[in-house]
Amino acid sequence: MQRLYRVNRKKAFSQIVQDAETKQCEIEEEIVVKHFKEVYSKSERQSTPPPNVVPKYPEIDEDDKNPLGPAFSTSEVFEILKKCSNSAPGPDSITYAAIKKYDPSGVIITALFNAVKRLKHIPQAWNKSSTILIFKKGDANDIKNWRPIALSNTISKLYSSTIAKRIQSWAIRNKIISPSQKGFMPFEGCLEHSFEIQTIIQHAKRNKNEVIVAWLDLYNAFGNLPHSSLFQSLEMAGLSPETIDEIKLLYANSETTIRLPSGPSESILIESGVKQGCPLSPIIFNIAMEPLIRAIENANSGYEIHGKQHSSKTFADDICTISKNILFAERQMNYATTVANWMGIKFNAKKCSTLHIREKKVIKSQFRIQGEKMEIMDKVTSYNYLGVPTGFKTFSSALETIEQLKKEVKCIDQSLLFPWQKFDAINTFITTKLSFHLKCGHVPKKPLKELDDLIKKVGKKWLNLPTCASTELLYLPYSAGGMNIIPTSILADISTVSHAFRLLTSNDRTTQKLALDSMKEVAEKRLKKEPTMEEISEYYNGVKIPNMPVETHDVTSCWINLRGAMRRLSSKMKIEFEVDNSKKKFNLIINKSAATRFNVEAKLRDATRNHFKQSLISKPIQGRVYNVTAKNPASNHFYRNGNFTRLTEWNFIHRARLDLVPLNGGTKKWFTRDQSCRKCKYKCESLSHVLNCCDPNKPTMTKRHDAVVHRLVDGFKKRQRKSQQILLDQIIPQTSSTLRPDITILDERKKEAIIIDVTIPYENFPKSFVSARDRKYEKYTEIKKELQNLGYNVFLDAFIVGSLGGYDPENYKCLKSLDIPKNYSILMKKLMVGLRNHPGEMKIG
Question: 255-260 and 128-135 as β-strands: parallel, antiparallel, unpaired?
């Protein structure tokens, strides 16, 4: 398992958390094959002119109607290949890694793709796939509860990706995709649509307006979309017949087999729907949905907020319509019905819901789609739109997710992974799953605290720490000697602030304006006046505003939460919204540095980790060693991946750096009446005594010291000149002193001398390294003077590595004087602070 995690973390994690809910499809092959034959069967729909409710598309220049006309370039294919991750291969078992190995520049692949373009022929193998079934939820014996995922040959997917890139660029350039469609587009679609819908509902409640929100669910939209409808929509969008014919090649004679426990099923012809797992499918599906979206928008029935009308929000096939009264809502449903019937697709009325709000009340109005009744929502029901429960009130989200995460943390704890791999699994697979809910939803603090407490408990166990150990160690960055975790309760505040700032700086001007106007509206409601930009920033910065009205009740929103999040984070960092009057916007300043929408979350995380770092090093006992080790990444290289570290050393080092080793003269927790050393009877058995002074441990200390010396000498020998002589632990014959520096290098021809003495002090605050270096200077000053009198240019310095792995950054002077190669010096530092010859071999107690 440890080896698998190093090679494929995702696969290893899946095996670790695998339990009863991970199912294989046990449905009879006959039933499965029959179902998918029906799903993929050819539709009887015939191409007919679009309904009048579908507006005309913008005119496309003749020169821009054939985006697939020019030959593929090597750079174009190379960029696609470079971004391909090594995902599961298709029926031919060829991986992206194999293609990158044998054709790293993409020259051969480019030639192949251009040959396909010239010949207008695609190899039959490119249109074959193997489909796996992923269980969704519900009854496992119902085939409709299994999601098909098609695995195609990697070369076929590369070809589709290259085409998709051109089609998407063409669609964006010519504004073919409606602004309300954010699925598979370069926007934060889920986050922005979820915010916009919630903001519209909140605005209607706050201002006692009427609004009707309808969530429309298409039955198996990807699998049931008729090919005639798909290709007609491409033609309506303005693509030339040549481009459409090239796309049709990918759908000609497509077939798949279903992977079942009994083996692969018979081949099933795909004559309907977009190809699952094909990189081209998202963009052409978006184009196919355009007639439906444009018809709804054309109804001109949207809800107006801050001077802008909002009619629909679509993410791929998840459609949400917004209207200002019953009449307009019915018009939208009629238009949607007309276009859906023309396209040959069907709404799943049982999963379509409507929410009618008027005067802050929920009205139970009945609406129909394609003649069938839609579900009616009340005050206490919600619709799970894009993973967030949305409705009249604020609903708690991620509760089931958090419970599942707790189970997964326990599975990680019981696994056979190395401790550092367990922490990596927490950072990679656990906390990241909460990110979306923390930004879009409302996650209660109590379950987050329970998850934090569990991670804290197992984290200390993996570090072999007692319960009294400082928890900051878990939250420090790897480079400072921590495990890079951030408590989810703090992560919630980070997500709130970063989400708000990204909305204010969205690439979509409509979303950006809605965010800024909503931000102002909430501040105005609270301050009971029209605030200036400066007053708005002060309010959200958590500043106590003089004569601020007594708090009034307002609708819960992300802006209400923003003020609280800013106040809590301000205790951990310097953070504030700053007014940019020239551009009428807000800048977010974090520790005196302006954040951008791309780095805001990373900056907040780094500032939080830095807060925990400062908190730990300020502690007089447990922060003593960290005052030294936390300041140099070389001292902590093993925290991320355990390189050059044995488990015995791992179990010791964290206790030791926090000074929590149970010794007679250790910290107060371990004090005994007799504080003398159990080995040498020294009056105080402290950690510094055991590691650096105890006589029975002298052989290990010498071995540790000599290992550092030999590493330095090995590095020097790579660049040693013939005229240079190396003296190790020897008296320098040119001087009268009997002292024996660890390393002396003499160059008689150039009259140069290098004197380096290695020392391994205990990391008792930074002054311990300074004192150790000063002692070495004082010890060898006379030798330096003698050699200088003989005409030598002398370099004298100490090389310091702490007994707990602290690496002195001042050592660079020694490395420079020895002319040690940079690559070797990086490895050498890791080997020196690596604990192989360190405390794991010490005799304690």
Answer: parallel
Res. 549: pLDDT tops 80: no
**Residue 213, token pair as written in the block:** 């929100």
The 3 state secondary structure assigned to 257-289 is EEEECCEECCCEECCECCCCCCCCHHHHHHHHH
pLDDT digits (tens, 9 = 90+) for 258-291: 998 888 999 999 999 998 888 999 999 999 999 9
Handedness of CA 279, 282, 288, 294 (dihedral sign): negative
| Strand pairing report for 375-376 and 353-358 | parallel
- Owner of token pair 């995690």: 5
What band does 551 get if pLDDT is binned at 50, 70 and 90? low
The letter for the amino acid at 735 is T
The pTM (predicted TM-score) of the whole model is: 0.89
Check if the beta carbon of residue 616 is closer than 8 Å to that of residue 626.
yes
CB contact at 8 A, 375 and 350:
yes
Q: Is 359 exposed, middle or buried (0-12, 13-18, 19+ CB in 10 A)?
A: exposed
Q: How far apart are CA 164 and CA 120, in angstroms?
A: 17
Helix/strand/coil for 759: strand
**Residues in a beta bridge with 804:** none
221, 352 Cβ separation under 8 angstroms: no
DSSP code at position 323: E
Sheet holding 724-728, edge to edge: 724-728, 743-747, 752-759, 793-800
Query: If you average pLDDT over every residue of the chain, what do you get?
Result: 91
DSSP element (H, E) containing 743 = strand 743-747
Residues sharing a CB contact under 8 Å with residue 335, sequence separation 6 or more, in sequence order: 53, 295, 296, 298, 299
- Angstrom distance (rounded) from CA 157 to CA 77: 12
**63's tokens:** 């020169």
Residues 6+ apart with CB under 8 A from 134: 146, 147, 148, 149
pLDDT in tens, 456-490: 999 999 999 999 899 999 999 999 999 999 999 99
What does the pLDDT average to over 398-411? 92
d(CA 759, CA 810): 13
Report the pLDDT value the prediction gives residue 553, as an integer from 0 to 100: 73
Contacts of 466 by beta carbon, 8 Å cutoff, 6+ apart:
460, 655, 660, 669
The DSSP output letter for 576 is E
CA–CA gap between residue 766 and residue 63 (Å, rounded): 69
pLDDT of 736 over the 60 cut: yes
Which three-class secondary structure state does DSSP give residue 385? strand
Structure tokens at 798: 């100490």
Most confident of 48-52, 276-280, 546-550: 48-52
pLDDT in tens, 69-80: 999 999 999 999
Q: DSSP letter for 218, please.
A: B
Residue 533: exposed, middle, or buried by beta-carbon count in 10 A (0-12, 13-18, 19+)? Answer: middle
- Distance from C-alpha of 395 to C-alpha of 410, rounded to nearest angstrom: 27
DSSP 69-109: -SPPPHHHHHHHHHH-------TT---HHHHHHH-TT-HHH
Q: Which letter, b or e, does each residue of 57-85 get, where b requires 16 or more Cβ atoms within 10 Å of its Cβ? A: beebeeeebbbbeeebeeebbbebbeebe
* 145: nearest Cα among 37, 35, 8: 35
Averaged pLDDT, 243-263: 92
Amino acid symbol at 97? A
How far from 25 is each of 146, 224, 260, 471, CA to CA, in Å?
Answer: 8, 22, 7, 44
To the nearest 5 percent, what fractions of the chain are helix, strand and coil?
A: 50, 15, 35
* Whether residue 585 has pLDDT greater than 60: yes
To 10 degrees, the CA torsion angle through 713, 718, 720, 726? Answer: 20
Q: How far is it, in rounded angstroms, from Cα 845 to Cα 839?
A: 13
